[in-house]
Amino acid sequence: MTMAANREFRLKRRGFLASLGAAAASSLLPNVSLAATSGDRRLVVILLRGGMDGVDLVQPYGDANLGVLRPDLALTPASGLIDLDGFFGLHPAASGLMSLWRAGHLSFAHAIASPYRGRSSHFEAQDVIETGNPIGSGSRTGWLNRALALIPRTASRAAVDITTSVELIMTGGNKTDVWATQSDFPLAQDEINSLQALFQTDPVFGKAGAGMSDLDPLPPIVNPQARMTGIADLAKLAGSLLAEDYRVASFSLAGWDTHQEQKRSFAEAVRLLTEAILHLQAGMGEAAWQQTAVVAITEFGRTLRLNSMGGTDHGTASAALLAGGAIAGGRVLADWPGLAEGQLFEGRDLAPTRDIRELLAALLFQQFEITAANLNAKVFPGLGFDPSSLFVKTN
Fold first, then answer.
1. What tens digit of pLDDT does each residue of 249-258 get?
2. Angle, nearest 10°, between helix axes 262-284 and 189-198?
3. Tens digits of per-residue pLDDT, 291-330?
4. CA angle, residues 275, 246, 379, in degrees to nearest 5
5. Distance, CA of 228 to CA of 211 (rounded, Å)
6. Which stretch of DSSP H or E encloses residue 368?
7. Whether 199 contacts 2, CB under 8 Å
8. Tell me, what DSSP letter sits at residue 138?
9. Strand order in the sheet with 82-83
10. Cα dist. 385→41, 101, 382 in Å?
11. Which of 52, 80, 187, 227 is buried deepest, with most CB atoms within 10 A?
């Protein structure tokens, strides 16, 4: 690597990304946002940006076709998978969450998806999941912001975004504050891969990017340990805010666009998510945690078969993670569609059986008593949510 290239990568992350163009940078930053309302119950939404492979996180090892489709990714309890219920198992990189599972504070919703079926664009898919509108770009307000106005017990509302601008999920008529002092996280592996691919022909950035992972020590903008520490600290801080005045929170974790070397990159992303949830819980404290529902969602899943680079491409259905004392834990909620050839969506993806907006509506209904009429008319127009939903806690 040339000295010029080294100087480029000693730049702070924000300066580096700014040099690539603001439009591109805004799509790559791991954004974090917070919003708040009053009341006793809490809701935290974690956006897993990049397209999280739900079949890798919660593996249906009881489906004999899993090993046929994914001979290089499929695990069993004998090879490290953590058994959940005799049919599904948890990726070993999430082992830190098993204390929550045993306490009844962790569950999953599987084979769910937003209405987006395009596969081609992360940004279009993220618009859909953040606006709650099947035509994502047709709405410029986020469902979480719209929901704030409908919480019946709310005497005052506040929102805080820890990035440099408010995320779409929190954009809308309810006031939000902006806090950017800790948004300078190192890049996730999928962001590094994207930059390397984007600038591989550039004489300066291409050469520097190709040798990025060989530097000793790693520059701050690509250091995985620094990224882990930064997001863990931020999650703990978010928890402490929720323990005080805030009641609704949202933040984003990038790193799930596993087009190549999925075994390594996916495990890294799962460990980061695990640490974020555990530090969120620690920052919140037991009393607040008991009143909290955390949901981690993604814009789409991945293909079931691996590509030639040992990764997976954009797919359709995925899984959502649920955590907190307010959820009915210890369950994998699913109308499992099966993985036989004739059961796949378009012959390649896990078939979606539930609209992910049903899950989100159920959490808003359960945590804040927002009526089904308001959810279907004002938060997720046209959804048809019913309080008898599979996702509403009944015990």
1. 888 899 999 9
2. 130
3. 999 999 999 999 999 999 999 999 999 999 999 999 999 9
4. 95
5. 22
6. helix 356-368
7. no
8. G
9. 58-59, 89-90, 82-83
10. 21, 27, 9
11. 52
